[in-house]
Structure formats: structure tokens, C-alpha cells
Amino acid sequence: MNIRSENDFKVKKLTDWGIKKYTLDEHRVDVKIANIWIEAKKSYEDTYDMLAQIIFTAYKVKEHQLLPLYFACFNANKGAIIENYQAQDVFLHSDIDWIQAPSGLDQKTIDRIKFLIKDVREFNNLDDFGKEIARLEKNPDSIKSSIDKNNFLQIYQEWLDAFGNQINIVAFQNKDIILADCYLADLMTDGVKTIAQKLRVLLDGNLSGEYFYKGKINELFAEIKIPDQQKYKNFWSKYNRPPKDEYQEYILQRRDLLIPANIRETKGAYFTPEIWCKVSAENLAEVFGENWQDEYYIWDPACGTGNLGRYLVNQRRVFMSTLDESDINVMDQIPIMPNTTKFQFDFVNDLWLPIEKGGKIPNSLWRVIKEESYKLIIYMNPPYVEATSYKKKSKTGSTQSSIKERMKESLLGKESNELFAQFYFRIYNEIKNCKIASFSKLKNCSGPNFENFRTVFKAKFCGGFLCEANTFDNVVGSFPISFQIWDTETQDDFPKKLAFKVYDPNGKRLQQKIVKNYKNTELINSWFKTTHSDKKTLGYIRHLPGDFQGQRGVYISSKTITRPIKLTELNIFQALIYLAVRIAPKKTWLNDRDQFKKPKVQKNGVYDYETDEKFINNCVVYSLFTKNYTNWQLFLNSDIGLVNNDRDLEVHDILLEGKQFSPQAQDVLNVAKQIYTIYHQNFINPNASWDEIIKELKKSKEQTCLDLFYNLKITLQILELDIMSDSIKYGFLDG
Prior knowledge:
six-stranded mixed β-sheet, globular
């Protein structure tokens, strides 16, 4: 065959490998073979680039196509294969920009996927790769597939599409039953009845060969007949049930992966990865001694299906409670930690009473709370759900509780929006002298809205660690999740500095991180805040919370924007300094919650930076040519070869006319001037904004323009190094 095109290349290789039944699709999946989807390139493209592309393709089509058991790729000299579960794991990571086209992924996305897919079978010889593809193709549909931890999610999606979505669970009249419970009842069966008797929903059959689900309502059972009996039987005829014993525990414990996103978000279902269970247990041993599990009692009041307790060995000293009764059923069925005391308890709503007095708290735990609370460790990973944020609408009901009302009465209104803070509040007030070992955001340590909390919470900080939030598969965003250990028996004031260990996603110890907290009057937004003036409005600056998290959303504009501060000749220099010191430093997951501060001030009331004209002008130039969406005209007609008397140069005259600039700032101005000049040589809008100029010239893809954009990027990077150094010097940023 004369191989001229990519399709010719694919066909030649498939023919060589003896593959006869396949489908080619240039627009979606390159090659479909039985239970395998393949990305193929005639060139020598990296295998991970190709795997990332086919995983993205699968993500785009998974709502209306059943995904295969394997994903593969090959190029001119090698190939690679992954199993379906690897792609499913990647799908869970919301920190990935899923809007991109599969064929145009950015390097950050490719690197992220490369990190996430661990079990890649790579073949440096195409003949070996082809033999394995042929072997996988010959697995006939008539052979029943096993169900394991790698494919149970995929099978669940197939189950939903086949008939699961037709099941009306409303008849169970139980808000804690979800469709996934019917699926688990199907999985944990010998083909006739559910063998895991403590599940929320059970499968049963009658003499006529019909199947139905039995769901518990209080102590009674309701029944739902499966709507299409033949479709049901045909579907399950493809699979061996139940899964092997070694997989049953994992599948039941990971019920959280089957929970719909809206329910998961409302209840704050966050499954603690095993690596952080291990590291947190090690940290507790460092603080309380190697015999801590024999010397202390442990209560996890947000245990879910109990995975945080996997490194707890003295089970008789462990208590676990959870919001959902079904979680306890799962733990009992696995069984996980069979000798622990498990009970249903809504920690932020239920009465604080023992069973003997009509409450839910076990009498044995109540005795510890009342008599030996100093020996009780509250070890938990509570929900990270908040009521509102400036990006999202209110999650109605997710943080409404009786504890929230008590916090408001204690003047902790803003803090009460966080569920983890509600857990802290109840523990601190109801269990005097206990120890707290909790995963949470860092808001209680450094967040401006937690200033009152830090005033009333008196305890000894015993240490902890930080890890990246997106290592938790239900957490959105790239920011630090902390594990904090506190001893409330020691009534210390909240520390100004907290030292945390830092770990990478594999549990490798990195550098230490010092987290500092400041009073709101010490933060940057107390220095630059909303002001009103009768002076002419020159534009607006977006004014967001003063940490790195809000960095991307700060910019200047000529148009009215959300959270604006009006710019006039009285505050425009201050505004551009505010913008520059906030956007020059690079945001990372580790500094995401760090706060920008109010600058240092001299005894005479003058800010230190105010005497440094170089720093001020550096900030002005940097801000004008980065996050600038105004229609300000920044160069004179004579500077850019333009003859026009209608341009408004007021801002130029205020900010740039007659000023002395550092060599680094002047370099930026020189490149920007060339960009302006090229634009006005080719376009007719004399009042174009900086943003419009950049967009138009980028469309041209002229080499001269590309070179200038590169030079602009480099000169801005050099300038921002100076700004970051001076930002630390003048107190805007911690060193």
C-alpha cells in the first residue's frame, strides 16, 4: 500500500495486525475496534499527547455513547494502552479545562493527564502492540465480563442508559435512596437475590422469574418492579456477579462516586484519598506518640463510609457517626472496622444527648465526653461546602443548621457559612478539652471572614500538613487543603504564624509553609477600598477579596463592572499600584489563600512606597500593559505616526507625561509603542483600546507582530520581578 495519508497509515497497520472489523472516524475516534478506541498518528507524536486527546474525546461523547473497555494510541514506532477506569478517574478532576477541543489541548492539560494516568502499558515495538490489540479484540461478547474496581463506574453508566433511568425510586418515599442503591443491589447478587443484606435497596425475585427492588421505609419495605424484565436480564447476562470478594469492599466504600453531583455537593461528600489517611495518621502519631491509638479515644463525626479510619487499629476505642444511615449499612456490609461503634448522627442539627436520655450519642461515648474528654480526638474530614461565594449562587440549604443559628448569636455570622466551621464550633463548645484533628480549608487560619473566629477559638496548635485540593476527587479548584491538629485543653490565643508540612500528590514531603493571619485592618483592601469623588470618572477597577485566589479577577476597565471602584485623578496611581502588586506574583496551589497586605507606613503617616517614584511608575506601566481593558490612549500621535486630533489623552497626561521610568519600564513602553504604531498603520480606529489592538494584531499572525508580542512578554516578566521584590520591601507581600 502506498501510504500517503494518515488513514492509509491506520489501515496498513490494522491489516498487518490481522484486524478486520474496525471503524474509522476522522472527526471523533480515529479507530474503533470492538471494546477498544484508538488514537493514531502517522508522525512520531508523544503517546501521552495522544492518550490525552482520546480521553478528552471520550469525555465529550460519554453522555450519548458507551465507552469501551480500553483506550489505546500508536504512532509510527510505538503504542500504549490504558483501561477504561483510568479515563473515568481523569473525568472526576474538575481542575481540568474540559472546554478545550481534543485536538488542541494545552500543555498544562496534557501534563495533568499524564500525571493522573498511572497504569499505562507502553509498547516500543509496533508488532508487540498490534499483537496485544488483536488479542483484546478476540475476547468475544459471549464471554461474561468480570466486575471490579476498574470498571464498576463504566458499568453503572451502561446500566443507567439500558434501563436504570426508567426506575422510579419515588415509590420508596425515602430521600436517602438514590438510583445507585438499586445498581449496588444488582451488583451484590448471586443472580437471584442480593447477598449484601444491609444495603438500603435489595434485589429479589419471584417464582415467575420476575425481579423487583425492595427499599426500606423505616422498618417496612416497599417494592418496585423492574420495568423491562427482558432488557434487565439481557443486560446482566454479560456480567459475572457478584464481584470477587476483594473488589466488593472497594465498590461499596466508593458509593460516593455514584452519587449525583447535585446531591454530592449539597451533602459535601468528600472521600479522603488513602494517601492522606496514611499521612494524617502518621502526623497524629508524631504529635501524640506512637501509642496514641491505645491512649486516646477517637471519634469521626463525618465518617461517610469510614475510609478515614483505615489506619485505626484499636477499633474498640473508635466511634464513627454519619449523616446518612445508608453509609452505616455500607460499613457494616463491607465490613469495615467491625468492632467500632457506628451510629447515625447529624452533627450540626441533632440534640446533644446520649441514648439513655433520648438522644443519639452512644452512652459509652457520652461517658468519654463528660469524664475523659482530654483523651478524645475528633478525627474528621468534614464537608467543605459554603453557602455563598462571589463566583457561585447560594447552595440553598447546604449550610442551614441549628449550629449556624448559634454561631450567629455568638457574632460568628460569616464564619457560619462554612460547614467545617460549624463542626469546629460544636466541638469547641460541647466537648471541652478535647483534641481536634481535621481536614479543612485554611480559612479558619488566615481568611478575613474568620477574624472573629480566631478571637474566640483558644487552643494549642500542634502541627499539621498541606496538600493540593484537587487530589480529593470531589473538590473543585487548585488550593491547599490543610490537616490541622489542635489541643483545646490548652487555651492559647490563636497563633499569628502556623507552620505546616507540605506534601506533593504522592505523599512526598516538600518544603515547610508558614501560614500567617492578619487583622482585616492590616490587609490590602483596607488600604485601597471604595471611595467616592466628584472628580471625572476615568474608569473602574475590579475590587476583589485580597488573596491570590481573587488574582485573576482584578483588572481595569472603561465599562461598569462587578465590584467596581471608580477611578479619578485622585486615586488612579493607587489603583494601578494595587493592580500591579496583586497580579505580578504567580499564583500556585500553595499560595492560593495567602493575603496581600496593607503597605508599611512611617511614623509621619506616609507610606514607605510613596517616596519611591521608580516603584510607582513601574506599577503604572506594568498595569497598563497587562490587565487593561480601558479605552485609554497611552501614546501621543507623534509617538505612533498618527495624525488625529480627536484622541483623549487625559490619562496619558496624568500617568506618563513628564515621568522618569526605570530601564525595565522603558523597555515595556518601547515595545508597546511599536505595537501601537503597527496597529495604526493597518487599522482605522484611532481610539482603539490596548486590548482591541492586541486582539486585532494577533489575528494577523504576522511574524513581526509575533516577535513583538514575545518581546512584550519578556519585558513584562523582567519588570514584574522588580515589582515583586519591591512589594515585599514595602510590605504588600510576605517574603
